[in-house]
Amino acid sequence: MMSLTYQEILKQPATWTQTLESVPGKWREASQGIYPAAISHALFMGSGTSLYIAQTAAQSFMEITGIPASAIPTSEAFLSTPSTVPRSGNVVAFIISRSGTTSEALLAATYLRDHHPHVRTVGITCNADTELERRCDTCLGLPFAAEQSVVMTQSFTTMLLTLQIVAALIAGNDALLAELKQLPGALGELLPAVERLAKDVGSSLDYDKTIYLGLGPNQGLAEEGTLKLKEMTQSSCEAYNPLEFRHGPISIVDEKTLIVLLEGVREKDYLADLNRDLKRYGAKVVSAGPLNTPGPDRHIQLGEAFSDIARCVLYIPFLQLLAYYRALALNLNPDRPRNLNQVVVLDVH
Ligand code: F1P
């Protein structure tokens, strides 16, 4: 039988089309009583993959709307409230959870509802009729992106794209909405080349560590790259901002290091120096993005027609397929990650 994870990765162009068609209407309904001009802060939270969605969504939201935004692990909303939840103003909290049943997401929703009436909670989930929906003030359900796999793939890009659409609607940015609408077609065209490179690089067992580099909105994507690789292959890997990586962590680079660089236009003048150092210390560098800066051993050109924000979801299928093909090369079953279930539950919820 074909791997469920693989099938869900390849479904993304179709799932993104459904997202773009349905989210504006869903948001119109769900956002009754939320007045864009009155929002003073947007808080994005999740656990695991959903935390990395929150990171990229928060950066996207602030860039698109100009409204201050931050991302936190859901546990921090109720365990470190004074340092994570603004004490006043009109705060909108997006609580992201594929399952809609993860304990920390439920605890955060209940805590905010009971203790912080100035915070309006919006659940984002891929399942219908969930406990998260019952505990939040309002909810965006995306059941067409529900998954059978343990490892989250199409749910990552669907929930991230949803939050970017919501930000564009809040900002009244029609040009960005039109740009986002080009994504399913762009991924459809790119997938064969993305898969070829992911298979080539992922199948090589010449590396004992993988480093993912991404700046700004791409940092959450780099983190997500590590999580896919850890879940599907239990390999050692880390994520960094590419310029930060030169300030110490570069000491770990050697001939058995694979670097996956997610290029953004904003850092284009700074990447040649980084690539030179990475090569000098023996790393194999694979880059993905719109630039094709001199230096990498392999490159996949993607998303040059898109802004840095709209391009975010386009990098992700490459990272997912890289982990998938490495799992196959290691004789592991990507559908059965070690020590992990679809939902992580605490005794207290
Ligand atoms: C989040 C999560 C996933 C992880 C695993 C367990 O769940 O931690 O990131 O890969 O599937 O659950 P959710 O709150 O988004 O359902």
- Biggest sheet character: 5 strands, parallel
* Structural category: alpha/beta
**Order of helices and strands, N to C?**
HHEHEHHEHEHEHHHEHEHEHEEH
Put simply, the count of helices is 14
Q: Approximately how much helix is present in the residues?
A: 40-55%
> How much of the residues is beta strand, in percent?
15-25%
Extended strand count: 10
- Looking at the structure, what is the overall shape? globular
Uncertain parts: none
Q: How far apart are the termini? A: 36 Å
Question: How would you characterize the overall build of this protein?
Answer:
The protein has 349 residues and is α/β, with parallel strands linked by helices. The protein has 14 helices and ten strands. It has helices at 4-10, 12-30, 49-65, 74-79, 81-84, 103-115, 131-135, 154-171, 174-180, 183-202, 217-233, 242-245, 271-280, 308-329, and strands spanning 41-46, 69-73, 91-96, 119-125, 138-141, 209-213, 237-240, 257-262, 284-289, 298-301. The strands form two sheets. Strands 2-1-3-4-5 form a five-stranded parallel β-sheet, with helices on both faces. Strands 7-6-8-9-10 form a five-stranded parallel β-sheet, with helices on both faces. Helix 13 links the parallel strand 8 and strand 9. Helix 2 (12-30) crosses helix 8 (154-171), helix 8 runs antiparallel to helix 9 (174-180) and helix 10 runs parallel beside helix 14. It is globular. The two termini are 36 Å apart. Bound molecules: 1-O-phosphono-beta-D-fructopyranose. 1-O-phosphono-beta-D-fructopyranose (F1P) is lined by residues 47-50, 97-99, 102, 105, 150-152, 231, 340, 342-344.
